[in-house]
Specification:
282 residues, Pantoate--beta-alanine Ligase, Chain: A,domain 2, 9 strands, 2 domains, 3-stranded antiparallel sheet, binds adenosine monophosphate, globular, alpha/beta, 6-stranded parallel sheet
């Protein structure tokens, strides 16, 4: 597996692959890789001739009081996982390689889409995500790019950004990979102490409850999210950021839980903010 630290190195290699008629898949990550990331790599390897994984903790998507400094990192472990799953190149740039000191250009969706759900408490987050993903698209020029449904709003926003900016890159969404007790795998799970780790299953319990109520015929968004909230509020270590139903494409709030509606939640367990979601009818 090639370890590329510079933009020039990535460009040179992907240009060679493309000249040989090979297709290229991109999996953007912030490192500290787990089976959730691995599932994206597996999918990319199965669909593309060559797979590039970016491993970059992107500072522009963290707010001033968020966990940029504390964000976990383990590049050696990441490389071992990526080798095992058949990635061809990992792009591991320094911040200075990705951002000029006076960088002032951003890619931002100006509709309400990035202000909904996670955008309410993370106002600059999706601008940072769109900017770094746009840069990665320009650097790697992939045919396909892979994103997890775990970050459902991010996936919807990237789809919109890729469409609006005419990237011509196929955006592939991949299902949520979970621990055996249902907790969605996340690099941030490492912040949880033993008691918090137990309490963190409340997100999946809420997802399961929401799905069950819908299966039983309940279609009122308020009714279902209220029951999910009640369940989460019974967990002393949990504090709700939001539990919301949104249009799966625009992220606008909805009243009725038709197929395709996203039911998403963000919950603090202690100081760690965790997210989960499901799509009605899936
Ligand atoms: P991150 O490193 O957290 O920025 O995540 C990189 C990519 O992996 C994103 O597209 C995430 O949605 C995806 N991802 C993270 N955790 C999971 C998971 N548990 N299941 C599926 N995809 C995931």
């Amino acid at each position: 597996m090639i370890i590329a630290k510079t933009v020039a190195q990535v460009r040179e290699q992907t240009a060679k692959w493309k000249a040989d008629g090979l297709t290229v898949g991109l999996v953007p990550t912030m490192g500290y890789l787990h089976e959730g990331h691995a599932s994206l790599v597996d999918k990319a390897v199965s669909e593309c001739d060559r797979v590039v994984v970016s491993d970059f903790v992107n500072p522009t998507q963290f707010g001033p009081n968020e966990d940029l400094e504390a964000y976990p990192r383990d590049f050696e472990h990441d490389c071992a996982l990526l080798e095992k799953h058949g990635a061809d190149m990992v792009f591991y740039p320094d911040v200075s390689e990705m951002y000029f000191p006076d960088a002032a250009t951003y890619v931002e969706i100006l509709s309400d889409m990035p202000k909904m759900l996670c955008g309410k408490t993370r106002p600059i987050h999706f601008r940072g995500v769109c900017t770094v993903v746009a840069k990665l698209f320009n650097i790697v020029t992939p045919d396909k790019a892979y994103f997890g449904q775990k970050d459902a709003q991010q996936l919807a926003i990237i789809r919109r950004m890729a469409r609006d900016m005419s990237y011509g890159i196929e955006i592939v969404g991949c299902p949520i990979i979970r621990e055996s007790d249902g907790l969605a795998k996340s690099s941030r799970n490492t912040y949880l102490n033993a008691d918090e780790r137990k309490a963190a299953t409340v997100l999946y319990r809420a997802v399961t409850l929401g799905k069950r109520l819908i299966q039983e015929g309940e279609r009122g968004a308020d009714k279902v999210t209220a029951e999910m909230k009640k369940l989460i509020e019974a967990e002393p270590l949990a504090r709700i950021d939001y539990v919301s139903a949104a249009d799966g494409v625009t992220m606008e709030p909805v009243d009725k839980l038709d197929d395709g509606v996203l039911v998403a939640l963000a919950v603090y367990i202690g100081r760690t903010r965790l997210i989960d979601n499901f799509t009605v009818g899936e």
